[in-house]
TrEMBL record:
This is Tryptophan halogenase family protein. SUPFAM superfamilies: FAD/NAD(P)-binding domain (SSF51905). It comes from the Bacteria. PANTHER family: FAD-BINDING PROTEIN, FLAVIN-DEPENDENT TRYPTOPHAN HALOGENASE. Pfam families: Trp_halogenase.
Amino acid sequence: MKSSDNRITQFVVVGGGTAGWIAAATLGNVFKDTDVSIEVVESPEVGIIGVGEATLPHFLTAIRNLGIDEVDFIRQTQSTFKWGIEFADWAEKGQSYFHSFGKIGRQIDGHDFYQLWLKARSEGDSVSLMEHSPEGILAGQNRFFLPHKAAQTPLAAVGYALHLDSTLVGQYLSRYAQSAGVKRTEAHVESVEQDAEGNITTLKLKGGESVSGDFFIDCTGFKGLLIEQTLKAGYEDWSHFLPCNRAVTVPSAKAEHTAPYTLATAREAGWTWRIPLQHRTGNGYVYCSDYISDDEAANTLLNALDTKPLGEPKVIPFLTGVRRKIWHKNCLALGLAQGFLEPLESTAIHLVSRSVAMFIRHFPDRGIHSTLVDEFNRRMHGEYAEIRDFLVMHYCTTKRNDTPFWQFCQNMPQSEDLQRKLAVFKASGTVVPGVEVLFEAVNWQMVLTGMGVVPERYNPTVDALDYAALRASMAAGKAAIEKIAATQPTHDEFIERFCKAPAVTM
């Protein structure tokens, strides 16, 4: 076994925001009370984009693993709860569907519930798939749940995430990380020095100071100061798969009632989001500039608001894709420096947490073994590709042809993996598993069913079950969910009672 003389003892994170402080907080927690130093260099000249303000359940797991009190985090970040996403006007105008977290129904004699539902549907049962989803029913009733009363009920395994203020999240994690010994330096990086092998050695700061390190984490946003401008890692452009290339955002006043889900509404040249927080509402329009101008997009967004705007619309250009080498030499890229997938399924913060966890799993020494780097990059590229295909699926299955954008989507490029997944699903309702599984079979089933994609048949082995008993079991499960959901407090009542944020002055 090799000695630890070559171990990494100096980490430098360039850029703050959510990505930078997730990295610093996680590393600070891992190396607390050791001689490993972690320093965040945060420029006062660079603002935070903060496009996404919605998360997946995995983020709460990461917060809990840091030992952070969930209730305090929710209060301090003005968070609300999220059961999933309502998609309006995606399959056809005037239609909507819900994509929730968690499972739907339960297996019977080893049969996947979706196959049981397909069987019931073929027998004339008109109960929708989401009527078997606890999260879907709670969202439809604008309710949240009392976790201590959920044991031994259909709510015991529900999954939820958060809507949050990304600026406040960065500030919260900054305080947490610094309490764990992370050093914060407020300065602008003017130049980067490298050794003979191309590894980064030193950052030259505005004002004449410098910061040296063994390993650097690039959280400098789209420009990728370290990973691209310095190390030339390259970027894989996926705009041919996902043509939306701009977002216009604007906050608006707090809604009278805060819905426990994100609303994603298909528009003329893309889609808008509405994310309710405790102190305001987050709004944005993701669109393709080939089909609509920035001014038209901003007007569309403003006209769609259901509360008063709290500022002027801000346009953010982006290029969908991923860095060819996410980890290159002694530098790891995170957040927008790593890549960008539009926030349709709220995957941005997940990819940051996932990358940090994967890096720790493949943790190097200063020698940085290429095998670890290659495996990390392979796994993360696989994750990006599978999320990309999941997003493309929302577009390519549409029946809309009312605008040039949606006409394009009906014939848009698809990866071979996605083509195979869709073909297998249409033939049998079966979902081909991916290498890196963020979205499981049930997620594909919910979205494809919502988009009106119906398999040609169910698995014939289901016919071995007694259908009368099957239907009675499914009806009993649905009734049990509805009964327990009706006893839960509304979303607003739950927040007011258990995790209301301190009052803020807007």
